[in-house]
Amino acid sequence: MNFDQNRIAEMLQDSLTGFELFVVDLSVSDAVRPKITVTLDSEQGLGIDECAQVSRRLARRIDETYGEDATYSLEVTSPGADQPLSDPRQYTRHVGRTFSLKLKDGTEKTGKLEATEPDGIQLAEIVKEKSKQKTLPTVLVPFTDIEEARVVISFK
């Protein structure tokens, strides 16, 4: 059976009613037993209970549309800690954490996320000088300049 990704996306949006969640990614495989993978997030973070509720709602809608005999697997998840951020709304809850940025011009920056703005992030870049680290003044890094952004995981 072929699942229409656009139709699944519509059903997913309906399934998010009442939640302050947004879709980070949706993929539908073309396998014999298709796999529908949904990655969700929110500005406050996402728990397993929300994933489970959205999964049940979406599965119900898929079964109503494609029939209960349709075979597929459904995975509703949140981005892992090691996943790059892909939506500007994901930055809000990470204010105060250290980020590693790859910019579209090929440069890389590491620094503390000081604030988010509608068009970018305020980053206090950390540079190494000899054996010491120095924090530079905060600068605005536009979202349009960011190729990839990852939270630096620290186990201090």
TrEMBL record:
Q: Where is the Ribosome maturation factor RimP N-terminal domain?
A: 18-82
- Which InterPro entries did the record assign? Ribosome_maturation_RimP, RimP_C, RimP_N, RimP_N_sf
Q: Could you tell me the superkingdom of the organism this chain comes from?
A: Bacteria
| UniProt domain Ribosome maturation factor RimP C-terminal: residue ranges | 85-155
Could you confirm whether the keyword Plastid appears in this record? no
UniProt keyword terms in alphabetical order: Cytoplasm, Ribosome biogenesis
Q: What does this protein do?
A: Required for maturation of 30S ribosomal subunits.
To which protein family does this belong?
Belongs to the RimP family.
What's the protein here called? Ribosome maturation factor RimP
Organism listed in the record: Hymenobacter tibetensis
